[in-house]
Design brief:
The complex is a heterodimer of chains A (112) and B (117). Chain A has 112 residues and is mostly beta strands. Chain A is built from no helices and 12 strands. In chain A, strands 2, 5, 6, 10, 11 and 12 form a 6-stranded mixed β-sheet that branches. A 4-stranded antiparallel β-sheet of chain A has the order 3-9-8-7, with no helix packed on it. The radius of gyration of chain A is 13 Å and the shape is globular. With 117 residues, chain B is mainly β. The chains are: A mainly beta (112), B mainly beta (117). The A-B interface holds A 32, 34, 36, 41-46, 49, 51, 89, 93, 98-100, 102-105, 107 and B 6, 32, 34, 41-44, 46, 49, 93, 95, 97, 103-111, 113.
């Protein structure tokens, strides 16, 4: 079945540091890929998405590129802020289903 | 656009009582709604999928009689936790999928924190 493997956390960074969270997937066909962010005590917010190979999703300084050859969708941000502290989830929807498959989530803490 | 609300945002109930959680799509019609459960520091676990006007499809291991789901309209789905027990305490999150954003995108509600004492 479809699955997402996400880099284990927690990750602790200083402000303005570079952030990368690795995400790889296993899926049949051509899945759509997503990054969601969850702030403490809240639901999930869509951060960015990519629907086909080589697409780059970007939002709020975050980027991720859909790499079919490596089945990856790594999340990156060049300069993090304290407000980026949250849990980040990588997810996919397969081409023959509509259910989201989530990674385990990565907790990111940014210190001032 | 594509806003999903949940009510209540948190609820405390006594063991043995039932609790209803509402999930509403505010600015789009949700043909499908999903209910998730999230334990502390863990990922989301899909409980069930509901399509408007039909019975919900439950994931393996989820008790249908305990978690009653109704999707009576294109903007409202409800989850009722019947005869709640402390082990049902959790964070429940709904999401909705409709014509907006394409069929693969889900929009999430803010979640409901349930505590059973």
């Amino acid at each position: 079945g479809d699955s997402v493997t996400q880099m284990e956390g927690p990750v602790t960074l200083s402000e303005e540091a570079f952030l990368t969270i690795n995400c790889t997937y296993t899926a049949t066909g051509y899945p759509s890929l997503f990054w969601y962010v969850q702030y403490p005590g809240e639901g999930l917010q869509l951060l960015l998405k990519a629907t086909k190979a080589d697409d780059k999703g970007s939002n709020k300084g975050f980027e991720a590129t859909y790499r079919k050859e490596t089945t990856s969708f790594h999340l990156e941000k060049g300069s993090v802020q304290v407000s980026d502290s949250a849990v980040y989830f990588c997810a996919l929807v397969s081409s023959n289903d509509y259910k989201l498959s989530f990674g385990a989530g990565t907790t990111v803490t940014v210190r001032a | 656009g594509a806003v999903v609300s949940q009510h209540p945002s948190w609820v405390i109930c006594k063991s043995g009582t039932s609790v209803k959680i509402e999930c509403r799509s505010l600015d789009f019609q949700a043909t499908t709604m999903f209910w998730y459960r999230q334990f502390p520091k863990q990922s989301l676990m899909l409980m069930a999928t509901s399509n408007e006007g039909s019975k919900a499809t439950y994931e393996q291991g989820v008790e249908k009689d305990k978690f009653l789901i109704n999707h009576a309209s294109l903007t409202l789905s409800t989850l009722t936790v019947t005869s709640a027990h402390p082990e049902d305490s959790s964070f429940y999150i709904c999401s909705a999928r409709g014509l907006a954003g394409g069929y693969r995108e889900q929009y999430f509600g803010p979640g409901t924190r349930l505590t059973v004492t």
